Description:
The complex is a heterotrimer of chains A (198), B (235) and C (211).
Chain A: H1 6-12, E1 15-20, E2 24-25, E3 37-38, E4 43-47, H2 48-54, E5 80-82, H3 90-98, H4 105-108, H5 112-123, H6 126-153, H7 161-168, H8 177-196
Antiparallel strand pairs in A: 1-4, 1-5, 2-3
Chain B: H1 5-9, H2 13-20, E1 24-29, H3 46-52, H4 60-63, E2 71-74, H5 75-83, E3 87-89, H6 97-109, H7 121-131, H8 140-162, H9 177-201, H10 206-213, H11 228-233
Antiparallel strand pairs in B: 1-2, 1-3
Helix pairs in contact in B: 6-8, 7-8
Chain C: H1 4-22, H2 34-64, H3 67-108, H4 113-117, H5 120-123, H6 128-146, E1 165-170, E2 175-179, E3 182-186, E4 191-195, H7 196-204, E5 208-210
Antiparallel strand pairs in C: 1-4, 1-5, 2-3
Amino acid sequence: xxxxxxxxxxxxxxxxxxxxxxxxxxxxxxxxxxxxxxxxxxxxxxxxxxxxxxxxxxxxxxxxxxxxxxxxxxxxxxxxxxxxxxxxxxxxxxxxxxxxxxxxxxxxxxxxxxxxxxxxxxxxxxxxxxxxxxxxxxxxxxxxxxxxxxxxxxxxxxxxxxxxxxxxxxxxxxxxxxxxxxxxxxxxxxxxxxxxxx
Amino acid sequence: xxxxxxxxxxxxxxxxxxxxxxxxxxxxxxxxxxxxxxxxxxxxxxxxxxxxxxxxxxxxxxxxxxxxxxxxxxxxxxxxxxxxxxxxxxxxxxxxxxxxxxxxxxxxxxxxxxxxxxxxxxxxxxxxxxxxxxxxxxxxxxxxxxxxxxxxxxxxxxxxxxxxxxxxxxxxxxxxxxxxxxxxxxxxxxxxxxxxxxxxxxxxxxxxxxxxxxxxxxxxxxxxxxxxxxxxxxx
Amino acid sequence: xxxxxxxxxxxxxxxxxxxxxxxxxxxxxxxxxxxxxxxxxxxxxxxxxxxxxxxxxxxxxxxxxxxxxxxxxxxxxxxxxxxxxxxxxxxxxxxxxxxxxxxxxxxxxxxxxxxxxxxxxxxxxxxxxxxxxxxxxxxxxxxxxxxxxxxxxxxxxxxxxxxxxxxxxxxxxxxxxxxxxxxxxxxxxxxxxxxxxxxxxxxxxxxxxxx
Lengths: 198, 235, 211
């Protein structure tokens, strides 16, 4: 969650479907209609950086944190209600259960784990956390396997072997951005180790 | 920043070797050294004592060397002396065909445990094979094969153990520094992310949950105790 | 939609980061995307005007005591404010990556020594401010290396030495060097047995070769 972290910035830009609970004029630009009004009940895809604040800020309250300090006992609803993004929806979760290694995580969402982590933190979603952690662990075995193989193979050649392995294995093309980093780190350490023995 | 990112994640094998070279090892010196200050050397090799002066050690160990009386010196120094044919290295007891065979038996019998090899077994054997080959009584190639077998069988167990990684702990009893070092980036990355997920949904109930997690790590090749996630970040 | 340009900028930065991760070569910086940055800044000024307007409206509404309006205006205010913050973060992340890469360049080139050899083509990718930054950061490194830390070669090789003494061959005449063990006259093609730490720098600079 570093402010300058590019992956974090990009993850923050992933879109989440949001239902407006209030009618707000002047926000039409969110929907490609500059100057227009967004009416209550409309569902729009908003970037996470916008959605996650609008979903917790209470329309009637003063404070920025949700939790009703509704002055004068009035409206405690937030501006929008976030809906589960497709990447974390039932279809994807079914695929996660079916075959973690076969799932093209990168196609589902390039920052899948980062997004899931946000969601878990926002909604204390134990179930989701457990499923994603399981997915992570199973895929990790596979990633490590490739790293070990790639490391041994890369002992001779100097660089860029990482790229050729990625090209040759469909699995490695399905890694999300974080997983790619794991693979890179693991493969590098394995390669250095196998080089040392020679 | 000045240290490349991959060296922040784990040690390079060369760094591991450097650390290992600081370990003590037993040698048989072939020469006798005397402090020059104490007067003339009775030894004929007056030239040698000039050379000793070039070594930047604090002195005592070198000065006490007596030919064919075993003594302990740092490995790097032993290798230097060896190079100049001024000593024989005493091969450690575990590095014989007999001991390695016994170790292999142990590794095969115990699916969920690692044999008690010294923490520097991989590095030390490699160095000695290369630089002190004539000090072994067993044939090097046979020893080499067994070291390779040990490496492979232990590696298999490590891979089995990784299936049971969790967010809190990992036991690495009897694994060597090189074995740990080459998987450290992977394990740290994975455990760190598991911990993040755990923390994200267990803000208040973190204490209660700890009890429930213990079973995850039992009966695996790698288990509990040292928090490598914490230690490797700060090395 | 606000923030889209900024997103483009971050994607560009991400690509730069990936390219530098992938290659073992020296750190490279692409051209500063001046146009995109300027357009994002334009958006930022627009958002700033919006925010000021909504803040004003809110005050007026508060005086009149009309609550529903203030709620709506708060939402409008928030949305604009968040768009502005997002743009700011993207711009900073872009610049931070470039700053980090410039730091790497400085270290790779051993501090200030690079500035002379740094050709115009190479730093045309940098803005004026970035060139200043690079220069000053390099100076900081040099200063640190010659100050209290002068005894440690901070930009020296990162591979631990295997031997204290090594054989070296002289590739280029380098004159006399003074070491603890006497004076060596480095004449091309001659060989010496020297302490590695005494000649580390000469090896790096290509005067000597380890054999």
